[in-house]
Request: fold
Amino acid sequence: MVAAALLLALLIDRWWGEPPAPLHPVVWMGRALGACGARLAPAQSTGRDLKVFWLAAFAWCALAAMVFVLSAALQWAALVFLPAWCAALVLGVLLKPMLAWRMLRAEVLAVESALGRSLADGRSRLAWLVSRDVRRLDAVQVRESAIETLAENLNDSVVAPLLWFALLGLPGAALYRFANTADAMWGYPGMRGGRYWQWAGKWAARADDVLSWLPARLTALLLWAVARGGVRWGDLRAQARSTPSPNGGWPMGAMALALGVRLSKPGGYVLNAEGGAAQAGDAGRAVDLAGRTIAALVMLVVLGLGSIAYFK
Reply:
């Protein structure tokens, strides 16, 4: 049933993409986080502010508990009151909003298409995907940023929610998606949107780090596997350490090594410094590699669940 729901969620994503915003659970999560964050984060730095930290931690835990309990209740109702095939259908529909492969793929390819028209168009389209300043990026840096975003969000938007669904069911996927959304909205080291997040967002950032630790390394392992030995594990570990994030460097480093290109964030880090400059076809190659990584994950999950069922 879990395998069937997972496959159905991916099929829904491929055929229809994202649900309308008024019906999207992640949009609801974002609105709740936005409302709480506006009340918790101060308008300026107040130094070491443990009061703000603990208030934000409590708000995060309260919202996370609501997400977990509601999703657990929906899963329980489906499993108890519906036949197996119908429960799998319902779980697949409920799982779909927790992942976003079609949208991610389309946005990355849209950046490359816009860049083919002009550098200004490429920068403008990239600004939809990243929070960094795109105004001074050249064409190679625009491609690098798009590929980095693809690699990092391959974990955040696909592999991690599917892995947590396989491990803990719908509550696991929903909790991960909440934590990742909270990190995206609160997890900043300084000022953003007129608010100071150093202490208000620290809990959210660390919670996302914890929940992403295993999926990020699994994403890198799967990228390594589908690259058919083109990536040396020791080299990947070295690349992963070069980013400030404890997790983001794993999928990004694996992608850089698998493609043989250099990926960097101006003023931040450089991955695979000896690689070539990202060219026009590399975004398409990255999307293809990511698609094969998702297929490998599905195969791994199905085989793992099948083995558990067999030995039971």
